[in-house]
Amino acid sequence: MSHIDEYKVMITRSRWFLDLAREAYRRQQYDLAVFLAEQAAQLRVKAALIRLAGHYPRVHSIRLLLGELAKASGNAGKKIIEFIKNNRSLLSELEDVYLIARYAPKQYSREDADDLITIAEKIIKLVEETERGQEH
Question: What pTM does this model have?
Answer without folding.
Answer: 0.94
